[in-house]
Amino acid sequence: MSAFGTKRTLGSSLNEPRLSRYDASSKPRREFISLLGGALTAWPFAAQAQQRERMRRIGVLIGFAESDPAVQSWLGAFRGTLAKLGWTEGSNLRIEVRWAGDDPDRMKTSAKELVDLRPDAILSVTTPVTGALIRETQTIPIVIVTVADPISSGFVANLGRPGGNLTGFALYEPSMGGKWLEMLKRIAPGVTRVALLFNPTTSVPIKFYMASIEDAGSSLAIQTSTAPVHAKDEIEGVIAGLAGNPGAGLIVMPDLFNTINRDLIIAAAARYRVPAIYFFRSFADSGGLISYGPDFAPQYPQAAEYIDRILKGEKPGDLPIQMPVKVPLLINLKTANALGLDVPLRLLNAADDVIE
Fold first, then answer.
1. Residue 128 phi, psi (nearest 5)
2. Residue 332, CB half-sphere, CA atoms under 13 Å: how many?
3. Which of 323, 179, 186 is nearest to 253 (CA)?
């Protein structure tokens, strides 16, 4: 054969294995394509899983004393519910907690600190704390607990569809004020004058309850007045002055200041023999005469569920703000006996709990 022909034949023999090596029907190529296709298919799911598992941050601003065991229990329930929903602290969740007590300056500073951390959501505990947070952000989702009526507090315009960046669980509505006066009159029929104890700095605006209180006072022939205090040193003086005339009674209004100073208030009411009604069961548990108000505890697991939904993409403004379904009545029979009060059987039967 010619040199040219030999070259062509050699070229053909070299080309054959090269062609078969890259033939689409060859086993190595099929395995390579299969592997590549599988990797490309799995990539979006891996990316989604990675996105789900990224570290989320939740801010918590609490308007109670850190030493309060009840509040620590509520916070524990909040954390426990998040864990049940798959949010593990240190793995895919970080919780930043700030305690503001009843100090407005600390609320403001702590609210700014949390907002500057750019958390994915914030749990806001108490009405004054919520006000401080709203002034700092209109975008970060805020879930409220232990808060009075958010409409009257100026936080939202609609409970069913709040819009904006706030949702959660409220506690009180305006008619509650009249019910406190009615309950106090039932357990202490001799009451003819009732003062409303509150701190203007940390309380819900007193006008929120006044219409229902004045209506009840008119029907029950009870004179009502306000008793503002600004420091714990003023508490005893106000209650002592109230006790100077017969027929005195006291409504301890929903107020962060009152909660933190509940032992002082209860002790002064006992010392001066003034029948008092309180807005939360911890007062009756601690020696207060009677409490009538929502149970705060269930709101914290519920708030965790709302935050879970927000972290998964729901908008806070689409989640309705919920009001309590049940309002427990507690009577401290030991305190009633110390005050010389004969509690009506009908009221005892209506109580959810009687402390003896």
1. -60, -40
2. 23
3. 179
What pLDDT, in 10s, does the model give residues 308-355? 999 999 999 999 999 988 899 999 999 999 999 999 999 999 999 999
- Helix (H/G/I), strand (E/B), else coil: 195: strand
Helices (H), the chain: 3-21, 27-52, 69-84, 104-116, 127-136, 176-187, 207-220, 235-242, 256-260, 262-271, 281-285, 299-311, 333-338, 345-350
What lies within 8 Å, CB to CB, of 167 at 6+ separation is 141, 142, 143, 144, 306, 316, 317, 319, 320, 321
Task: Look at residues 91, 57, 90, 89 and name the one whose alpha carbon lies nearest to residue 76.
Answer: 89
Would you call 268 helix, strand, or coil by DSSP? helix
Q: Is the pTM of this model over 0.85?
A: no
Kind plus residue range of the DSSP H or E element containing 145: strand 142-147
Decide which of 119 and 295 is more confident: 119
